[in-house]
């Protein structure tokens, strides 16, 4: 590494695994370092934010980001993706459709509604390219040097296209996207699937187990007990039976 995680403003979660809490919407971006590849998890809310993440990743590794996983189709997680134009981009099956046509227009409008500068929203939406790789079930990425990352289509829940990223190690790290939120109550917009959300959290818990570090889409990292409690609260909130 050319700089440490802390010097670059990142939080190290495990050897070769870190995350950054981005300003504005407190959205999480993740980074997984392998001997041959570098995986970014989510891309921020604009081209400028995506470019900053890309530059910080290069500072940390001396190499470019080779893979980008998008956890779900909300503006604060995906509008920075065009800044990673030379990376292989992954999303849950169907995300490519959600980020095209009318979906792209709605994404841009939602970004402006939440306070993103309209010019920045226009620029990012116009440059947005749907993911090349659709994850149905599970997809293991080999990043070299024994480093792997498991991409899992765990939704629907927060949206119809929720992707989680499990990084084996000590500890194991699970990037949850907005299926889990720590800094506020989980947001359930018109694209949420409340009846399936608790089951998606059950899947996260099976992936990571009791000793994993769980990384919410917003807020501080949490343990399995927090995810389980949020699962139970969502089931009660939406009237979902066991």
Task: Report what the structure shows.
- With 242 residues, the protein is of the alpha/beta class.
- 30% of the residues lie in helices and 26% in strands.
- The protein has helices at residues 47-61, 75-78, 95-98, 102-113, 118-127, 197-208, 224-238, and strands spanning 11-14, 17-21, 28-33, 38-41, 67-69, 88-92, 133-135, 138-144, 147-153, 163-167, 173-181, 213-218.
- Strands 1-2-3-4-5-6-7 form a 7-stranded mixed beta sheet, with helices on one face. The chain has a 5-stranded mixed beta sheet with strand order 8-9-10-11-12, covered by helices on one side.
- Strand 11 (173-181), helix 6 and strand 12 form a beta-alpha-beta unit.
- Helix 4 runs antiparallel to helix 5 (118-127) and helix 6 packs antiparallel against helix 7.
- It starts with 10 loop residues before the first strand and ends with a helix.
- The mean pLDDT is 95.
- This is MBL fold metallo-hydrolase.
- It holds the Pfam family Lactamase_B.
- Residues 26-218 form the Metallo-beta-lactamase domain.
- It comes from Streptomyces griseoincarnatus.
Features:
242 residues, alpha/beta, 5-stranded mixed β-sheet, 7 helices, MBL fold metallo-hydrolase, RibonucZ/Hydroxyglut_hydro, NDM-1-like, Metallo-B-lactamas
Proportion of strand residues: 25-35%
Distance between the termini: 47 Å
Rg is 16 Å
The protein's oligomeric status is: single chain
Task: Please count the helical segments.
Answer: 7
Binned, the helix content reads 25-40%
Biggest sheet: strand arrangement = 1-2-3-4-5-6-7
Low-confidence stretches: none
**Total strand count, please?**
12
The description of the largest β-sheet is: 7 strands, mixed
């Amino acid at each position: 590494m050319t700089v440490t995680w802390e010097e670059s403003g990142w939080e190290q979660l495990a050897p070769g695994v870190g995350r950054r809490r981005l300003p504005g919407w407190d959205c999480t971006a993740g980074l997984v370092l392998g001997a041959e590849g570098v995986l970014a998890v989510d891309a921020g809310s604009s081209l400028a934010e995506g470019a900053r993440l890309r530059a910080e990743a290069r500072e940390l590794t001396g190499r470019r980001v080779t893979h980008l996983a998008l956890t779900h189709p909300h503006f604060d997680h995906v509008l920075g993706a065009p800044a990673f134009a030379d990376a292989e981009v992954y999303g849950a099956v169907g995300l490519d459709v959600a980020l095209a046509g009318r979906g792209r227009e709605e994404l841009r409008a939602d970004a402006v509604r939440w306070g993103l500068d309209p010019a920045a929203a226009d620029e990012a939406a116009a440059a947005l390219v749907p993911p090349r790789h659709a994850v149905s079930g599970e997809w293991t990425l080999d990043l070299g040097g024994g480093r792997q990352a498991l991409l899992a289509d765990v939704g629907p829940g927060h949206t119809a296209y929720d992707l989680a990223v499990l990084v084996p190690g000590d500890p194991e790290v699970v990037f949850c996207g907005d299926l889990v939120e720590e800094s506020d109550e989980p947001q359930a917009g018109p694209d949420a699937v409340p009846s399936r959300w608790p089951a998606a959290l059950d899947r996260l818990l099976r992936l990571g187990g009791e000793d994993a570090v769980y990384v919410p889409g917003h807020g501080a990292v949490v343990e399995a007990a927090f995810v389980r409690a949020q699962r139970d609260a969502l089931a009660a909130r939406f009237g979902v039976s066991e």
